[in-house]
Amino acid sequence: MRRITFDLDVLRTFVTGMELGSFAKAAERLGRSTSAVSAQLKKLEEHAATPIFRKAGRGLALTEAGETMLGYARRLIELNDEAASAIRDVELEGWVRLGLQEDFGEAVLPEVLGRFARAHPKVRIEARIGRSHELAERVLSGSLDIALAWHDGTTLPYSR
Q1: I need a labelling partner for 152 at 20 to 30 A (CA). Which of 25, 79, 97, 138 fits?
Q2: Global pTM?
Q3: Strands 53-56 and 59-62: what pairing?
Q4: What is the pLDDT of residues 89-100, one digit of tens each?
Q5: Cα separation, 36 vs 77, whole angstroms
């Protein structure tokens, strides 16, 4: 069996088109012609040696293989971008004190901090989970550098 090496540029076009819901919009965002995007999608199907798309009315939908490919394409692009960031920002180091509400801390924090730690191994992160008012007080007192919290109408430095 021959090895397949997927082109990351083609995968990025594929993912962008699926996320935007239109390959014409993907072409515009990526600075390509629609015919170049079509050629990339054809190349993807050729490399995969199986249909990725099926006709759905006037548009395209993903086949089961296409759904599988989309998941892997996202992971490959994410890993590529993480590697590029890691080698560019090798000198990034220091300490960041971060505060999040419980909702964000449980759902978002493990994955995001894991990716960040792999990309920036010299940066130490202290994460604190708390209620919005507690996190705001910690930012004001200087015991947190940044916090993601709900706004209660009080004007705080750097709040939106």
Answers
A1: 97
A2: 0.58
A3: antiparallel
A4: 566 788 888 888
A5: 20
